[in-house]
Specification:
Elements (H helix, E strand, L loop, with lengths): L2 H18 L1 E8 H5 L2 H13 L1 E8 L1 H10 L4 E4 L2 H9 L7 E13 L12 H11 L3 E3 L5 H12 L12 E3 L4 H11 L2 E5 H6 L6 E5 L6 E8 L10 H11 L2 H9 L1 E2 L2 E2 L2 E2 L6
Parallel strand pairs: 1-2, 1-3, 5-6, 5-7
Antiparallel strand pairs: 3-9, 4-7, 4-8, 4-9, 4-12, 10-11
């Protein structure tokens, strides 16, 4: 065989392998992506399963819409009530809890609203509503935004008509919202993972944390092949099996930034 034909044969084999490579599209939250965990998990998933996971990074609300339309094969989000509706309506086959972390209330280090002294997150938000320093909301129908609105409601504060003089919607992902809050010296609700990975912390710090109401569960939902026959359901199932395996759960639990673990693995049985 001549050198020319040998090169041709190698190229043909490589092209065939590339054509046969499995891919799976997964919609994930900006908070999950901003944490950097995907950069650790995805190469390992490909190595051990042969599946290339392509991420669509959006808020939870948009991720659910992508799943509903069959534009992705699975979603990884953090808004339990909305996830349960997604499955109940037949858009997803089931909901599988994968890992959790928590939300934290970030603000200027001098803490003009005095939230450091609050006993609960509800009290912390009441202090902000009473003193009206700047507060930046994601305002994007994400899981974080939905939780923020629920927390305001539990605190007895109606922010639907709040003055933009103090309550401002960024309409953006977590990283961009944090940048806005830091630039304004404003308060903001963030997931802990994004804050730990975030580089631009000038003058801002975690001022309130630890309330059970700030618990932040992430779940994996494969899109229903009965509703959308074209979805890569087998690949979605295999990725779920890997994420909930001992190897996957260990990698999630071992992921740290500056010695702090960002997620706690807690894979549960299918719902």
């Amino acid at each position: 065989m001549t050198l020319r034909w040998m090169i041709f044969a190698v190229v043909a084999v490589l092209m065939t392998c590339a054509a046969q490579a499995e891919t799976m599209r997964m919609a994930v939250t900006t908070s999950f992506h901003n944490s950097g965990l995907a950069e650790v998990l995805l190469p390992r998933i490909t190595q051990e399963t042969g599946i290339e996971v392509q991420l669509l990074v959006v808020g939870t609300g948009q991720a659910l819409k992508l799943g509903q339309a069959g534009d992705v094969d699975a979603i990884l989000v953090h808004s339990k009530a909305a996830e349960e509706v997604f499955v109940a309506k037949g858009y997803g086959t089931h909901r599988r809890e994968i890992m959790y972390n928590d939300f934290v209330l970030i603000g200027p280090e001098d803490d003009p609203a005095g939230v450091k002294d609050a006993a609960t997150v509800a009290e912390a938000l009441q202090k902000i509503a009473q003193t009206r320093p700047a507060f930046v909301s994601r305002g994007d129908d994400s899981g974080t935004h939905r939780r923020e609105l629920a927390l305001w409601a539990s605190a007895g504060v109606d922010v639907t008509d709040a003055s933009p003089d103090w309550y401002r919607a960024a309409g953006a992902g977590m990283g961009a919202t944090l940048n806005t809050a830091v630039g304004m010296g404003a308060y903001v609700l963030s997931d802990r993972a994004t804050w730990l990975k975030f580089g631009n912390k000038a003058g801002q710090a975690i001022l309130f944390e630890g309330d059970a109401a700030l618990f932040n569960q992430y779940a994996y939902l494969p899109v229903s092949p009965q509703l959308h026959a074209h979805v890569a359901h087998d690949s979605a199932q295999r990725v779920e099996e890997w994420l909930t395996s001992a190897a996957g759960q260990t990698m999630i639990g071992d992921y740290q930034i500056a010695g702090t673990r960002l997620f706690v693995p807690n894979a549960r049985a299918r719902e």
